[in-house]
Amino acid sequence: MMNFANKSRERQGTSKSLTAGQQKTHAHGNSARQETHTTAPLSPTAAQRFAQAVWGPLAGLIVNLMLVVIKVMAGLASGSVALLADAGHSGADVANNVLVLASLVYARRGADETHPYGHDRAEVLAAIASAFILIGAGLFFGWDSIQKIIVGTPEPSLLALWVAIGTLVVKLVVVWIEMRIGKKVHSQAIQADARDNLADVLSSVAVIFGVIGAQFGNSRVDGIAGLVIAFLILLNAVQIGMKASHELLDHNLDTKTREAVRVAANHVPGVSVTAVTGREHGSDVLVELSIEVDPKMTVAQASQLADKVRESVYAEVPSVGDVVVELNTNHFARLRKKLR
């Protein structure tokens, strides 16, 4: 499994821990073409990444289990329908936490014969599942809010207000922890889980508005606030789903990253970049480069030059985990022609 920690092994200049996977040479007329593919070896950093990543959703799971019990008890005691509905949302968060933890365990597996790029995309599948869970929660929350606008809600006690405020504070802490961990280990699943917890924060805001509104004699404030928040939850779900779908569909890297790779490769003397493409694969960025070199070079010289290009890209673009280099060809033009 290639992961973010593997990427630092060469850039710190310790040794060449990458091994050449495949080197192919094809002659065509008077020009030489060579394709070299370097992949990172399996290393214990996969376990290190898992150890860092698991604490976010695990903390979320414990918090959500506690919140389900507290909200159900407080909702029944205070008569707050919104708080009981919020307990259901926390229950969905529990299911999402379990899903994310399962994806992290599966993604921890290294590369093998059937999955040569590792199992990182299990986390992307978990992110998509989180999006669907959020869509369900948003639709339910929206429908419940419409009902509250139409018929109003019974006046709840202030106990519901204090529970909602406590939930908001605790969930904000969980969101901050998970977002920080998710970005650090480049995990879409954990970031999606953080956004799911953020939706719980928003639903708590609706409960707070509802209780305050009821105290001032307006029982429909809860429904109005809930409808707005339901829209935000659905929007959040769409954003998570689109980002995860882009990775599953091998969406090309953004222009900034491709240009950074091009500049890094061009820093190697005797190299002219003709095409740069790439894709995200879990916590890694995989890049394919086509470069022009002197066709009179020997295979050994061309191979050394390709290694220098890879080292330059690794050093200048830390997010890149693997680089495939093709010599004297344009892989992007070939793909567009063959895969029309």
Strand-helix topology:
Blueprint: H1 8-11, E1 19-28, E2 31-39, H2 45-53, H3 55-78, H4 81-107, H5 122-151, H6 158-184, H7 188-215, H8 221-248, H9 255-266, E3 272-281, E4 284-292, H10 299-316, E5 320-327, H11 331-338
Parallel strand pairs: 4-5
Antiparallel strand pairs: 1-2, 2-5, 3-4
Helix pairs in contact: 3-4, 3-6, 4-5, 4-7, 5-7, 5-8, 6-7, 7-8, 9-10
Précis, in short:
The chain is an alpha+beta fold and 340 residues long. The chain has helices at 8-11, 45-53, 55-78, 81-107, 122-151, 158-184, 188-215, 221-248, 255-266, 299-316, 331-338, and strands at 19-28, 31-39, 272-281, 284-292, 320-327. A hairpin with a 2-residue loop joins strand 1 and strand 2.
Helix percentage: 55-70%
Distance between the termini: 31 Å
**Low-pLDDT ranges:** 1-44
Radius of gyration: 26 Å
Please name the CATH architecture of the largest domain.
Up-down Bundle
Total helical elements: 11
Residues in β-strands, percent:
5-15%
SS elements, strand count: 5
Strand order of the largest sheet: 1-2-5-4-3
Morphology call: elongated
CATH superfamily of the largest domain: Cation efflux protein transmembrane domain
* Total domain units: 2
Q: What would the CATH topology of the largest domain be?
A: Alpha-lytic protease prodomain-like
| Biggest sheet statistics | 5 strands, mixed
Give the CATH level 1 class of the largest domain: Mainly Alpha
The helix-and-strand class reads alpha+beta
